[in-house]
Every structure is written in C-alpha cells, then in structure tokens.
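Narrative summary of target 7.
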Amino acid sequence: MIYQTMISRTCDGHPLTANTDTAHHQQGSDVKEGLKNMKFLSRMAGRFQDRCSFYLDAVCVHFISALGLTYLVVCDASYPPVLAFSFLDEIQREFLKSYEKTKVDAVTRPYSLIDFDMSMQKVKQRYNNPRSLTTKLNLAVLSEELKLRPPSIISPEQLRPDENSYNVYIDNNIKSNTFSTSASRHRHGSYVPMGLRTVLAVGLSLFCAVLNLTRGLAVINDAHIEDYDTDHYQYAATFILNGILSVYQVYLLCVPLKTRRPLACATLFSICLCQLYLWEYRNNYLIIFHFIVAVFGTFVIFQRKVQEKLPQYML
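Modeled conformation, tokenized:
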C-alpha cells in the first residue's frame, strides 16, 4: 500500500508538493518513521543515485531523481518495487507536463505547488488497487528494467553525515536561520507583483532623485567657482538630501517593511520640508511636481498588498 508521496528539488531539498491527507499518519509508528525518513531523504537525495530504496521494518521509502527534482513515496515494505517505481515514473510525467522548469526553480515557499496533490491522489488510488493495473501495465518490461538497473539500497549508516558535511550543514542552517530571523524582524512577507501604478511611482521617484542629485552637484560646483557662500552648500545639501529621500521612497515601494507606512509618512514630511526650504531657489512648478510625486509614492506604498501565506504552507 502507498501511504505518502512527496516532490522536492534535488539541489536543496526544498519541498514543492506532497499529499495533504493525514489518514495514514495514525496507523502506527512505522508509517510515521517512514514519513520522517522521507523528508530527511529529500534533503539528501543529491548524495545518492537517481533510483534508490530505503527499507525500514514495515515500510519502505523509494525515490527517483531526474532533471533537478526528486520524487519520493512511502509504502509497505511488501509493496512490489516494480509498482512503486512505476508509480514514481507516472508522477514524474504528470508533474513535468503540469509545471515548467522556470516556475519550479522560482518557488521559494514550501509546498507552493500543493495543487498538484489532486493529480497524485488519483494516481495513488489506482496503484493502491494493483488488480486494476494488471491489464494496463506491462509488468514484465518493468521488472526486466529493474533487473538490468536495480535501485540502490540505502543503509542507515549512509544517512549519517560525516563530520565535515555535518559541520557544513549546521553552519549553513545557522546562517540561514540567522538571516531569516533578522530579515523577519523587518520584512513583512513579500509584495504582490508590481502593477502599472507601482511602476509609475518608482519611475517618477527615481526621476526626482536624479533631478535633485544633479542639481545639488551643480550648486556645489557653482559654490567652488564663486566666492565661498555658506548658503550655497546648505542648498546643495538640501538637494542631495531630497534625492536620497526619493531613493528611500523607492526602497519602501519595493521592500515590504513592517513599519513601511510610518516610514513613508516620515519620508513624505521630510521631502515637503526640503521643498519649502528650496522655495526661493527652485521653480514653483518643479516644487509642486516633486510634492505631487512624493504624495503619489506614499499613496502607492499604503496601497501595495503583501502576499499572504499559501494554503498548506505549514504542511
């Protein structure tokens, strides 16, 4: 009997999809141990051959790796390996037909492709009733293929990482956890893809930043040519500060900080103060233009939506 199926990326063990039913999780410690080892093997699949089996007392984990993906299944130890690997081959074909490689490589959240579970459930139901498969599968051909290229049997000792790989694994986890923890303090999920309004706000803010920085450098250059005047440098500093604030507004438009809204208000207030200070030094129409762009950017920051966690995110 097949209990659980899982698909992950071979390079990093990132889980892409798995069965969502939990009915078999209560059938005993053997099945639970099999599920635990399946997740562990998904992270280590790159160390083994492309077709492997790992036997426990009552259950077995079979998996295949191809095209950067690993397909794993937990089933009874008595379940015919020829059917288990035939099941994985069929899951592989269905998955490759459903998702392009670019979409798979771009996945960052665990189990983001959980909608493929429906297809896996249909295939699993057929393979859990082997009598219905006898007329649809050529078992002789499948058995001959396994005899010519038998799966590699993984021993428990092979799952024990050596000292160097264990230290690297721990170091990578520490770095990853440290980064994610520090990032989670400031990040709040991720924005939905940019729309036309957001692209327009980013473009206008960058345009204002370039205008302010260019004008500030020009004022500094004029101050060197003319007699030393403290006001020149103050105006130049204000132009440059205004440019930096516009760049920071672009940052808030692109990065979903938890405190982005109060920061956006503070940035807008600072830009307005800069424009008031430059009132006599700049064309009134330009001041109004910079003010409108800042207000528009702040409005877009408030309106940008953050992606919510996908269903079954903590599967």
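The two ends are 22 Å apart (CA to CA).
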